[in-house]
Specification:
Blueprint (H helix, E strand, L loop, with lengths): L7 H21 L5 H23 L7 H10 L10 H12 L6 E3 L5 E3 L4 E2 L28 H10 L10 H6 L15
Antiparallel strand pairs: 1-2, 2-3
Helix pairs in contact: 1-2, 3-4
The structure holds calcium ion.
Length: about 190
């Protein structure tokens, strides 16, 4: 993906700083025996792999029922007349439940996060004029905490077109039988 935005730069800076510190201390204490040196290298590689893993797990793809529960607790069920199944269906077709989704529209604006929120109207990012009606940074729409994303969609859906603002919802979810989307999710 093209998006070096988001919380990623901070995470990578932390990683680089950590590795610099770690490498410096390891090099200063490198043992002269080849086996000890090899052990040190293995230890370093393990540390590197673990740290990379810790950075990448910040991305999150929600499970269907997992999303259901977060949306329910956040009071989205029936909000402005839309059942939870509508939100889950919309998010699936817009982003596949991916909190890091960023897609560019034909008009040059971008849609951010698990609900594909547009930077022309709702959030502010660098280099784009925005109404910023949700009063938030677009990068906050890419982390694993979607409570602020939910607050923003509550604002978006109050507009006259309601969920019709999401093209994929209109295409795949509007006026459909949506029961399958919440099937098996414990109330
Ligand atoms: Ca967020």
């Amino acid at each position: 993906m093209e998006e070096e935005e988001g919380s990623e730069p901070d995470a990578w800076q932390d990683l680089i700083l950590f590795l610099q510190t770690e490498l410096t201390s390891e090099v200063l204490s490198t043992p002269s025996h080849p086996i000890e040196a090899a052990k040190t290298m293995i230890h370093l590689l393990q540390t590197l792999l673990l740290t990379c893993f810790a950075v990448t797990v910040q991305a999150k793809i929600f499970g269907r029922c997992e999303l259901y529960h977060v949306l329910k607790v956040s009071g989205l069920d029936g909000y402005e007349g839309y059942s939870l199944a509508n939100w889950i269906c919309m998010s699936f077709f817009e982003t596949g439940f991916d909190t890091e989704a960023v897609d560019r529209r034909k008009d040059g604006t971008k849609d951010y996060g698990i609900f594909h929120i547009n930077n022309g109207w709702w959030c502010k990012d660098e280099g784009t004029l925005s109404e910023n009606l949700c009063s938030m940074s677009c990068t906050d729409l890419l982390n694993t905490d979607i409570h602020d994303d939910i607050l923003c969609v509550k604002r978006i859906v109050k507009d006259p077109q309601g969920m019709g603002t999401w093209k994929e919802w209109k295409k795949h979810c509007e006026k459909q039988d949506l029961r399958e989307w919440v099937k098996g999710c414990k109330p």
